[in-house]
Amino acid sequence: MERDFTEIPLRDEIPGPLQRRLAALFEKICSRLNGYSGGGGEKVWERHEICEMDVAHQEICRAISEGRPYAVGRLGGVEASVLMWALGIKAETGLLSQPLGFLATRFAATNAGIRPRNKPSYRTFAKLCEESLEILDCQGVWKNPYEASCLALLPERRLVDVETLAPSDVQGDHWMNALEGKRVLVVSPFASTIQSQIPKLGRVWEKRGWVPGVEFTVVSFPYLIDENCDEPWWQVYTRIASVIASADYDVGLFGCGGLGLLFAAEAKRSGKVGLHLGGHLQLLFGIYGKRHLEQEWFRKMINQDWVRPISSEIPKTSQRVENGCYW
User: Fold this and answer.
1) This protein's superkingdom (predicted)?
2) How far apart are the first and last CA of the chain?
């Protein structure tokens, strides 16, 4: 699909320190009043049905086996903030229900790589995000308030706990099983580390076993979160979307910051299966970061054949993203 990005300015609109502090305080107050003080968000999720893990994996496996166009995605909190601001979506109802101001999008550049940060840029991204969400077949959810607000405006789709989509050494139904004999396109900033890990996947997944005959094509994704990156997000989107539309593959796996959702949708439009795995993608190749050492569920999978990302694939601004959780 041809898109015109020529009218988007390259300048950034940066909020000042006082604006950031006031926004953080307001969000904290809204969170507590709307039932999110514990971070779970159970109140506003009571009316959303979350399917069982095995049901979601069986459906994804069928789509891969049948070669049927299918998209799995997730909506991160910062991406949701851009979508809600641009579309005027109010936060999920509670004691406070207000549209978001542009200041609420302040983390989208540093955490998700949606830069430059300005209103035309973010309106364009939000439009693509909305179009991508509308064609998802399965969505992994964190059960956060912004996510719930966006779901209210989307067509019905299967919802599943986002953590259950992660690569796992637990035996049983899992989308990893359906990769046997498939051509798999991978888009990730960890391209070199992934290439070095591919020959070791049998040992990385020694407990559950690795499926034979998988043919990988790995495409490097630039760190848009890094201030040294001189490419605007839409330039990278256009370039990689072209690869997704023309490459010869069966399944696309995407872990690319704020653009992963858009790429999963592009894969489906191209007649393929697209899985937006976000930070879970690196686990498929036995690549762990700080977060995975801190969480027992991930830590127990790590063996001597798992590795940290090589130094050249760690951005200078890594500590700004949840204290360097992926590295």
Assistant:
1) Bacteria
2) 34
